[in-house]
AFF3 protein
Amino acid sequence: ISISSLAIPINKNEKMLRSPVSPLSDASKHKYSNDDLTSSSRPNGSSLLPSISSSKKHKGEIQLQPHPGDFNKAIHINSENVLHCNKPQFQTEPWSPLSTTPRDCRRTKLIFDDIPRNADYFMQEAKRKKHKADAMVEKFGKALNYAEAALSFIECGNAMEQGPMESKSPYTMYSETVELIRYAVRLKTHSGPNATPEDKQLAALCYRCLALLYWRMFRLKRDHAVKYSKALIEYFKNSSKAAQNPSPWGASGKSTGTPSPMSPSPSPVSSVGSQGSTGAPSPSPIISIPQRIHQMAANHVSITNSILHSYDYWEMADNLAKENRDFFNDLDALMGPITLHSSMEHLVQYTQQGLHWVRNSAHLS
C-alpha cells in the first residue's frame, strides 16, 4: 500500500518536472506564444508568462517555474515577433517603383527596347529633342534637353558605324555631339554655393559622355595616328642627322654646296654679321619644313588630343560623382558601372537612366 501510494506522486512529479531542454507540446507552444504577445501588449508589461487557474495554483508554481534558458528564449521569441511586425511588407530596391519613400519614388527604372533602328530614325529624334531644347528658357531644363538630344545623336553615330551614311561619317557626328554637350554644360554652372545636387549630377553625366566620345573619336582615327606618327618620326630622325652635318655656308657668306634642308636659305642678319669675320654664322631661329609634314603633324596632334581630353573629362566626372555617391552608387548597381571601354549602347542607356532620375528629382515634366 505504501509503495503504491507513493508511486502516483512520483510519476506526477516526473511528469511535472520535465527537462528544461525538452520541447513543449504543440498545444502549449501555441498557447505560450499567444499569451506572450498579449502580455507584452499590456500597459505595465509585468509578466511574459501565461496566468494559471486558481484550482491548479500550487501545481502551477512547481510546473511553470521558468528555467533561465526558457525565459531568455521567450524574450527572444517575443522580440522576433515584434521586429517581424515592424518590417516592411515588400523589400524592394531603391529604384523599384513599389517603394513608398519620396526618394525611392524618384528612382524608377526605365524600360529599354532592343529594336534595331537606322541612323535616320535617331537623327530625327535628335533634331526633335534639340528643337524642344531651343524653345526653352529655363537654363537647367534647357541643358537637360540638350543632353537628351545628344544621346540620340550618339545613337545616330553608332548606327552610322554599323552602316555608314554617305553624307556624314561617325567621327563627324561624334565631333558635333561633343560641341553640343559642352554647350549644355556651360548653360548651368555646377560649381559654387548656389549649385544644386541636380546640377552636379547632370554635369557628371555629361562629362562621362564627353570622355567616352573623345575616346571613341580616337579609336576611329587610331590607324591614321599610327601612320602619321611613323612618318613624323622618320622625318625628324633624318632632319637631326642633317643638322649634325657641317654648314655649307662658308665664312664669307657664299654658298659652298647644297644648302641643308633645315635651313634652305641663309638668314639676312647672319649673312651680314658674318661678313669680315672668321666665325661661323649664328643658326637661324626659323626652321622651314615641307607642307606635307606640317599638315601631317597638325592631324596627328588633333587625333592624340582626343586622348588627353578623354582622361580630363573622366577625372572631372569622378570628382563630381564623389560628391553624389548615393546617386551614382544606385545608378551603377542598376545599370552596371561605366568605364572608358564601355560600348556606345551602354553609355546611352546609363546616361538616359541617370537623366531620368535627375528630371524626376528636379520635378521637371
Remarks:
- The CA atoms of residues 59 and 259 lie 125 Å apart.
- Residues 119-237+290-364 form one domain.
- The two ends are 95 Å apart (CA to CA).
- The longest helix spans residues 291-322.
